[in-house]
């Protein structure tokens, strides 16, 4: 092992030599394992990985994402989920009436509307397919959105959801993180939502630091003082 | 080549006009992530060269027919600002810039793991703000850093350096006077 766990590594940096497995964002050349991205090196069991700190969102099946409708087609919508690929939301994957015509499609979702959806199919040869069938999925009608780097989403959720539970509790909002870096905060008043969004941007800026949960909590409590009236 | 009226590029101590040894580079300054809009960016000062590189992508391929089904298309534009040289350079891309764009692209392509992003494009823009010989090499360095900054998987960081021959001796990183 050449790189320490949690060490910042760059592409082409030698991570280890010997009987390790090359995990995510690493590659093997002979017996040597190198990093292929900027990120933090880590060792899980015998597997070397690099946790990226930057990068585009690549859809994965079952991801919850927030997307913007960009086009209305014959049988569905095209959705921008800020990935390199445009996503499709077919009308058959929404709870609307099956026999509805094209006019009704525009009635359901207009261009520019936001939708909370789940990726049901994606592979490298086909564009992602979305569904809004499911609990809590569908059109976004209220709340505020924050847009952060997709690589920072795990930090927003925290270990076993510690960060997001704290955010929800302290700001009294419902926070829905899309895996594509777009996060929805729905609160009971604009102040709560504004503070929640501010906290999210703070997490993005300081994602690499320790004890962040406590500092974010302190910031929220400070901001909430005298502002929130139930 | 070494007449009385021409400047001697290497003096008796084996030092060059600017006091460097034969294998010594000019001072380098690097900054990363200086453009907010770009997915990745880098600024490199290499001697008097000042170069800005921006990377966008991987993003949807436009126009669609250029997309490849098994990997991302890498596009590159090397451009010199009109104010980058002593005499104003026409902002229209010259033959030289077209060629260098291709050369730089081909130097970076083997390092980029473009097979991770089929049907998309990665766009690289290199802007020379001030030129002082060796802009293509500094441009490659800047572009590689911008690519890494964009979080694009790469086999390694690419860097480049020019080399020339003065009085039969190989010399690294030519300056503007030596280049001429």
Give a structural overview.
The complex is a heterodimer of chains A (230) and B (180). Helix content of chain A is 22%, strand content 33%. Chain A is an alpha+beta fold and 230 residues long. Chain B is built from three helices and seven strands. Chain B is α+β, with helices and mostly antiparallel strands and 180 residues long. In chain B, a hairpin with a 7-residue loop joins strand 1 and strand 2 (40-46). The radius of gyration of chain B is 18 Å and the shape is elongated. Chain B folds into two domains: 1-25 and 161-180, no CATH class; 28-160, GHMP Kinase, N-terminal domain (Ribosomal Protein S5, domain 2). The mean pLDDT of chain B is 92. In chain B, helix 1 (95-108) packs across helix 2 (135-149). Chains A and B meet through loops of A and strand 3 of B.
Number of strands of chain A: 16
Q: What proportion of the residues of chain B form beta strands (DSSP E)?
A: 25-35%
Largest interface: A-B, 21 and 25 residues
**What level of helicity do the residues of chain B show?**
10-25%
Amino-to-carboxy terminus distance of chain A: 54 Å
Top CATH class of the largest domain in chain A: Alpha Beta
Number of helices of chain B: 3
The end-to-end span of chain B amounts to 12 Å
Provide a short characterization of the protein structure.
The complex is a heterodimer of chains A (230) and B (180). With 230 residues, chain A is α+β, with helices and mostly antiparallel strands.
Helices and strands in order:
The complex is a heterodimer of chains A (230) and B (180).
Chain A: E1 8-9, E2 14-17, E3 21-22, E4 26-29, E5 32-35, E6 39-44, E7 47-52, E8 64-72, E9 76-80, E10 87-90, H1 102-108, E11 114-123, E12 126-131, E13 138-139, E14 144-147, H2 153-157, H3 162-171, E15 174-177, E16 182-186, H4 190-205, H5 212-224
Parallel strand pairs in A: 3-7
Antiparallel strand pairs in A: 1-6, 2-5, 4-5, 6-7, 8-9, 8-11, 9-10, 11-12, 11-13, 14-16, 15-16
Helix pairs in contact in A: 3-5, 4-5
Chain B: E1 28-32, E2 40-46, E3 49-60, E4 73-80, H1 95-108, E5 120-130, H2 135-149, E6 163-166, E7 169-172, H3 176-179
């Amino acid at each position: 092992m050449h790189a320490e766990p949690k060490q910042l590594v760059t592409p082409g940096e030698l991570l280890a030599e010997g009987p390790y497995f090359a995990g995510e964002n690493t590659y093997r050349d002979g017996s040597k394992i190198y990093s292929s991205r900027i990120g933090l090196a880590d060792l899980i069991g015998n597997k070397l990985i690099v946790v990226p700190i930057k990068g585009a969102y690549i859809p994965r099946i079952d991801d919850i994402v927030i997307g913007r409708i960009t086009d209305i087609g014959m049988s569905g919508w095209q959705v921008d989920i800020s990935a390199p690929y445009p996503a499709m939301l077919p009308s058959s994957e929404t709870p609307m009436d099956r026999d509805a015509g094209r006019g009704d499609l525009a009635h359901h979702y207009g261009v520019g509307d936001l939708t909370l959806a789940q990726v049901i199919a994606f592979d490298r040869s086909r564009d992602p397919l979305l569904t809004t069938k499911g609990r809590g999925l569908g059109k976004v009608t209220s709340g505020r959105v924050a847009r952060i780097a997709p690589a920072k989403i795990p930090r927003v959720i925290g270990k076993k959801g510690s960060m997001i539970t704290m955010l929800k509790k302290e700001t009294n909002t419902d926070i829905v993180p899309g895996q594509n870096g777009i996060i929805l905060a729905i609160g009971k008043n604009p102040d709560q939502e504004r503070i929640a969004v501010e906290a999210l941007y703070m997490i993005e800026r300081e994602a690499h630091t320790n004890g962040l949960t406590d500092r974010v909590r302190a910031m929220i409590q400070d901001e909430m003082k005298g502002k929130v009236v139930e | 080549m070494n007449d009385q009226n021409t400047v001697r590029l290497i003096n008796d101590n084996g030092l060059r006009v600017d006091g460097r040894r034969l294998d010594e580079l000019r001072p380098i300054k690097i900054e990363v992530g200086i453009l907010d809009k770009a997915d990745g960016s880098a600024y490199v000062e290499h001697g008097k060269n000042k170069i800005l590189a921006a990377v966008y992508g991987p993003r949807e391929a436009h126009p669609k027919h250029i997309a490849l089904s098994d990997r991302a298309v890498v596009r590159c534009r090397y451009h010199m600002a009109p104010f980058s040289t002593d005499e104003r350079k026409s902002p229209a891309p010259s033959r030289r810039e077209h060629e260098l764009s291709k050369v730089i692209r081909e130097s970076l392509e083997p390092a980029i793991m473009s097979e991770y992003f089929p049907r998309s494009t990665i766009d690289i823009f290199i802007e020379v703000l001030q030129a002082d010989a060796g802009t293509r090499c500094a441009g490659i360095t800047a572009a590689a850093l911008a690519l890494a900054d964009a979080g694009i998987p790469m086999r390694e960081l690419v860097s480049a350096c020019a080399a020339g021959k003065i009085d039969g001796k190989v010399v690294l990183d030519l300056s503007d006077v030596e280049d001429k």
